[in-house]
Design a protein that fits this description.
The chain is α+β, with helices and mostly antiparallel strands. It is built from 17 helices and 18 strands. It has helices at 4-9, 35-45, 63-73, 90-96, 102-109, 128-133, 135-144, 159-171, 176-183, 200-210, 230-233, 243-258, 263-268, 274-287, 330-337, 402-420, 437-444; strands at 21-23, 31-33, 76-77, 116-119, 123-126, 149-150, 153-154, 214-219, 225-229, 260-262, 290-295, 302-305, 309-311, 317-319, 358-363, 366-376, 381-389, 424-427. A hairpin with a 5-residue loop joins strand 8 and strand 9. Helix 8 crosses helix 10, helix 9 crosses helix 10 and helix 16 (402-420) packs across helix 17 (437-444).
Length: 448
């Protein structure tokens, strides 16, 4: 086994690595990593270890930059929460800085598509190749989701499904609202129960979507899905991939995006079951794609992707979306960064500890703060509703001073404001506050 010092100060098995990173390679079957090293490997895998590229204001982020992020992270989780920006837009900002969100809309809404919607982690954007790898899930969902009754008949057997298919084929792309308008008299909207209260048209369209008969051609200005026949959205979508091959390929994507992780981490990325993931991991180890490893303090199976790199340092300072791939798996987040993090959108206001839409703030290889933000686009203000030092951050070895964290956060908020069209960053008084709020308010004050 190579000494840890050799891996952090420079490569001992390869002379082709760069000055700032070493390829984390070893022929040992029981290679061992410190927690700090595992953190840096994970950040590098997600493209969060280097400062964002310095660009002039008129030097725009291009589709090539967006594609590089997609290739690295493998998927982007979709969520309709728009208190700061759409959930799938923020991970690109974290990695690229201010960019035109129309790039992502174009990638998913215009042929030839670089992204397509699918159930992956949850509802996600994935590359077309990954969509094909998820065919086994769509086949399973065709049976599982078709049991919902419509007029006493399971949806999969209901005549309404043929009617909706015909509408999509004739008029697609169409929204659920547009299809519902054609069926409203026959199937009026029911409002007697709390929840999603989907119309019959929406239920039918979602069933056809999860089972693969229709796909999402894009979203409208109200963020509604526009459904069309899958063959018109994605060419060659029916190319079959054997289930075992597909799962193995998904696990390899997950492993590359993690850099290093446990069996549970590798399964969670695409919400795979543990046993198929275990079989895929064994095959990838046999092929040399994954290397068994140990991380100090982790008591479970750990694997490193053979192409993972270990930066000597991590230099990025950025806010991280609650839906960012870096923080998908909360146990991994807690073990890597010492942060027990739960989003509090669905927590009653009086019971919130950190705030409504709280973003972890990454500085170097540590999460230093938790920040509750709101983009008030009507007034052009980015409102900081709460700002806390992350639990345990002050007690960590080599801990940063509050002033250093506030300085970095102030700069990041200015960047977020520029991106969201909010020219003024203000500290609000309606949130839960936080121990960094006063200092941040002083920095944000005019003339500060």
């Amino acid at each position: 086994m190579l000494p840890v010092a050799d891996l952090t100060t420079g490569p001992t098995t390869s002379r082709t690595t760069s000055r700032t990173t070493s390829r984390a390679t070893s022929t040992a079957r029981d290679e061992r990593w410190t927690l700090a090293q595992a953190r840096r490997i994970a950040l590098a895998a997600q493209g969060l270890h280097r400062p964002r590229a310095e660009r002039a204001p008129d030097s725009a982020v291009t589709m090539r930059h967006v594609q590089q992020v997609i290739d690295r992270v493998g998927l982007l989780q979709i969520d309709s929460v728009n208190v700061l920006a759409r959930a799938h837009h923020v991970p690109l900002f974290s990695r690229l800085g201010p960019y035109d969100t129309a790039l992502l809309d174009r990638a998913a809404g215009r042929a030839p598509r670089r992204l397509v919607e699918s159930w992956a982690h949850v509802a996600s954007y994935v590359p077309p190749e990954t969509y094909r790898l998820l065919g086994w899930r769509r086949r399973a969902d065709r049976e599982r989701h078709g049991r919902q009754p419509v007029d006493g008949v399971p949806l999969r057997d209901s005549p309404v499904l043929d009617d909706v298919r015909a509408v999509v084929g004739e008029r697609g792309p169409v929204t659920a609202q547009e299809v519902h308008a054609l069926f409203a008299e026959r199937f009026p909207r029911r409002r007697e129960s709390w929840g999603w209260n989907w119309t019959v048209a929406k239920s039918a369209l979602e069933y056809l979507f999860v089972s693969g008969e229709v796909a999402v051609a894009g979203r409208n200005a109200a963020f509604e899905r526009r459904y069309d026949l899958t063959g018109r959205v994605l060419a060659d979508h029916e190319q079959p991939v054997p289930d075992d091959d597909a799962v193995r390929a998904l696990v390899e994507i997950s492993a590359r995006a993690h850099g290093i992780g446990t069996l549970g981490c590798l399964a969670d990325y695409f919400r795979l079951k543990v046993e198929p993931t275990r079989r895929a991991v064994a095959e990838l180890v046999e092929a040399g794609t994954l290397v068994p490893a140990t991380v100090d303090g982790w008591d479970r199976e750990v694997y490193r992707h053979v192409d993972a790199v270990l930066p000597r340092r991590a230099h990025r300072a950025c806010l991280i979306s609650p839906f960012d791939p870096l923080v998908f798996e909360r146990r991994r987040l807690e073990e890597l960064f010492g942060l027990r993090y739960r989003i509090e959108i669905y927590v009653p206001q009086a019971q919130r500890r950190w705030g409504y839409y709280v973003l972890p703030f990454l500085v170097g290889d540590r999460i230093e703060a938790l920040v509750d933000l709101k983009a008030d686009r009507a007034t052009g203000r980015l409102v900081v509703q709460a700002a806390h030092r992350a639990p345990g951050a002050r007690d960590a070895a080599g801990a940063r001073a509050d002033a250093e964290v506030v300085h970095a956060l102030h700069d990041e908020l200015a960047l977020v404001g520029r991106w969201t069209g909010c020219d003024e960053v203000v500290v609000g008084t309606d949130g839960v506050g936080g121990d960094l709020l006063a200092a941040l308010g002083s920095r944000a004050a005019p003339g500060a």
